[in-house]
Here is the input.
Amino acid sequence: MKTITIANQKGGVAKTTTALCIANGLQEVGYNVLMIDLDPQCNTTTTYQAQTEDTNTLYDLLHKKCTVQESIQKTESGDIIAGDKNLAGIEGEFASQLKNYSLLKKALEEVSDQYDFTIIDTPPNIGFYMTSALIASDGVVIPIKAEKFAIDGLAQIVSNIKDAQEAANEKLKIYGVLLTVYDKRTALDAIVHDQLPEIGEKEGFRVFDTSIRVCQQVKEAQSRQVRLFDEYPNCNAAVDYANLIKELLQEVKKG
Here is the structure.
């Protein structure tokens, strides 16, 4: 099983959309995928229509109130360990003990033979949850939008990934930076699109050849809580995410 974290400390960069579409796209080409919603906002959980009341969630798993198997919900969108809004209030509690940072990694090891991939959606901040995801992962996808602050923030997230590599997970790789909500008709988007590979070469990270074009159907799919590839398989974003999956699989196969 390969575990992939979708991470950026900046919000509004289509991070959850990317997590959802990568999971969906991998399912479309035949892989068995587990989704983990580490974001206390629980948007991925909502999209999967997973339960958070009277059932085991990530909150229960981290508190060792259930096994990882008992925390997995099977939904029409796929298997998921649901997020929980209670996670927002306990991050400091978990962060205070070093051993807690490996809780997620150890839990996933127990189901490593059941899935081909685990996709982790993380909150837009560098804290306990994102760090736990990096420690548990084989690689990271970093979605960004064509905005100055997003580009400036790349150095910070890349630095934190390298810190996780050095401190706890030497196998961790940056699979690539992904430009999202891309509109080539917009001057800034075009400039960032052209300059990002050069920035990546200088700073030591790969930029995916695929960019995800702006697409209204993404919002429509999320509002209806349906999978993009199921409902709008020919829309720009679905085509782009399908191409991204091909690139991502090539990166994963490199080991």
Summary: The beta strands are 2-6, 33-37, 72-75, 78-81, 117-121, 139-144, 173-179. The mean pLDDT is 93. The radius of gyration is 17 Å.
